[in-house]
């Protein structure tokens, strides 16, 4: 700070300077207060007047030579400043384009302290930064590339339609990763408010490049060696983790059984609440984390359980050992589990399937429109828009099966020893199956198919 101010050629008095960051009970982290503190000192020294700063929110980090370096979180700060009726925002030059997404806010984006000082005093005018670009029309790989695997493709359509979680179990090279990467292309593009939400999280994580706001669904693929802070959030500056960067999109966990147990346990809370809570020294930070979970795993360590010519000879015990790495409560949270068998040479020689992502996305969009309309009526708060989010009385009201469906569900719940959570997840999937068909009520056939997706990993 001292160095940056002396770089301006200002004589800083050799006195103690007290900086009061009130209110004291509000926790403060990070270096983005640098610039505000520097401007306050300049005002105390008489280099700026109080009016020059009045009504302006200031964010930025200072380098020793007086340059203002980029900071994270400018987009949400700008939107909050506009909502609070502030006059303007002062930020680093590189952050200007993202700040300009806030309507009705004057943005001063400065490269260094001297040009900022001159701008605020009216000696020199900094150009208004351009608003960050809106990303191009999203493009995704097509499901038409996948040969065979009809069960898994059907499951992808169902999870896309109802925003459910999916676990794929199968040998290496069966197309699990390929299919997961094609789920975002089955989902509707983000609405503008959703795109802004996603971008705000990226901004806080320092990942919003050039202030560009994208309408593509997030697709995050953290490796199983990722640390807990990288996945759930935390570390210095309480950075959002992968679960939050996947907000409104897809979190793909490949090789699920290789993730450490503590990490998998920590995932349960965001899956259930749609929020990642990060504990700090004396407070908590919560980031949105409403993602769709897709996971893939081999049936056993060597991966070839179902193929007698290639399996390791320790079957089936090796598979039980491998799968027992996943806790029951975690497996419970996958609404659909599908077996993905090895693709045969005959499958690969097939002509491309008639249906691609566009046709399936069309059905998904119709099923989602039915859900959105229904939950607008039943849950005017707007907190529910897909079957995956329906709960309690609302779920009971919309997913009550017909008499035959009820009988089947009761029987299966006993046989499969379904937990209460598992039971409700079956109901949600059955509701989605009915919506894909455009059926008014949930009937036995929907319950039967939904139960078929819960037969475990073996
Ligand atoms: N069902 C399939 N249809 C077409 N190509 C496939 C299929 N399954 C696998 N492949 C080919 O095999 C490669 C590996 O697939 P991948 O999705 O990584 O398998 P997995 O994740 O199940 O190990 C792909 O890049 C693709 O070339
Ligand atoms: Mg893979």
Commentary on this structure:
The chain is α/β, with parallel strands linked by helices and 458 residues long. The chain has three domains: 2-120, Ribosomal Protein S5, domain 2 (2-Layer Sandwich), CATH 3.30.230.10; 143-153 and 160-352, Rossmann fold (3-Layer(aba) Sandwich); 359-452, no CATH class. Helices cover 40% and strands 11% of the residues. The chain contains 20 helices and 14 strands. It has helices spanning 2-6, 34-44, 50-53, 74-83, 96-99, 113-120, 150-162, 176-181, 192-204, 228-232, 242-245, 261-273, 317-323, 328-332, 345-348, 357-378, 392-399, 403-415, 420-437, 444-452, and strands at 56-58, 61-62, 68-69, 88-92, 106-110, 166-169, 219-220, 233-234, 239-240, 250-253, 275-279, 284-288, 292-297, 336-339. The strands form five sheets. It has a five-stranded parallel sheet. Strands 1-4-5 form a three-stranded parallel sheet, sandwiched between helices. A hairpin with a 4-residue loop joins β11 and β12. α18 (403-415) packs parallel to α20. The structure holds adenosine-5'-diphosphate and magnesium ion.
């Amino acid at each position: 700070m001292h160095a940056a101010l002396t770089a301006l050629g200002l004589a800083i008095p050799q006195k103690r300077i007290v900086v009061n960051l009130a209110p004291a009970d509000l926790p403060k982290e990070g270096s983005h207060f640098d610039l505000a503190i520097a401007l306050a000192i300049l005002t105390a020294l008489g280099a700026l007047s109080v009016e020059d700063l009045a009504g302006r929110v200031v964010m930025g980090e200072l380098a020793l030579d007086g340059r203002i370096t980029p900071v994270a979180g400018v987009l949400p700060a700008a939107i909050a400043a506009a909502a609070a009726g502030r006059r303007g925002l002062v930020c680093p030059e590189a952050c200007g384009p993202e700040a300009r997404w806030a309507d009705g806010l004057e943005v001063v984006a400065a490269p260094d302290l001297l040009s900022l000082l001159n701008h605020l005093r009216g000696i020199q005018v900094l150009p208004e930064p351009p608003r960050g670009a809106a990303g191009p029309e999203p493009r995704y790989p097509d499901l038409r590339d996948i040969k065979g695997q009809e069960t898994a493709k059907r499951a992808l359509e169902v999870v896309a339609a109802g925003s459910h979680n999916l676990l794929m179990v199968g040998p290496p090279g069966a197309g699990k990763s390929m299919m997961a990467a094609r789920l975002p292309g089955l989902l509707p593009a983000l609405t503008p408010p959703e795109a802004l939400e996603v971008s705000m999280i990226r901004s806080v994580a320092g990942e919003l490049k050039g202030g560009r706001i994208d309408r593509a669904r997030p697709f995050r693929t953290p490796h199983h060696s990722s640390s807990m802070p990288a996945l759930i959030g935390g570390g210095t500056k309480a950075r959002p983790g992968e679960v939050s960067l996947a907000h409104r999109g897809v979190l793909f966990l490949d090789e699920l059984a290789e993730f450490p147990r503590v990490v998998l346990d920590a995932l349960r809370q965001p899956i259930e609440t749609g929020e990642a809570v990060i504990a700090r020294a004396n407070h908590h930070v919560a980031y949105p984390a409403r993602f769709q979970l897709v996971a893939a795993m081999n049936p056993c360590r060597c991966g070839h359980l179902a193929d007698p010519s290639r399996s390791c000879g320790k079957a089936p015990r090796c598979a039980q050992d491998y799968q027992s790495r996943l806790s029951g409560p975690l497996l419970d949270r996958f609404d659909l589990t599908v077996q993905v068998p090895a693709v045969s040479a005959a499958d690969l020689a097939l002509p491309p399937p008639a249906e691609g992502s566009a046709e399936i996305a069309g059905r998904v969009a119709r099923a989602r429109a039915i859900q959105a309309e229904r939950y607008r009526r039943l849950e005017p708060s707007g907190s529910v828009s897909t079957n995956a989010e329906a709960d309690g009385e609302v779920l009971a009201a919309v997913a009550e099966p017909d008499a035959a469906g009820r009988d089947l569900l009761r029987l299966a719940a006993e046989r499969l020893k379904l937990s209460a959570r598992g039971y409700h997840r079956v109901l949600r999937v059955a509701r989605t199956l009915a919506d894909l068909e455009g059926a008014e009520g949930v009937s036995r056939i929907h319950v039967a198919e939904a139960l078929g997706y819960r037969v475990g990993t073996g």
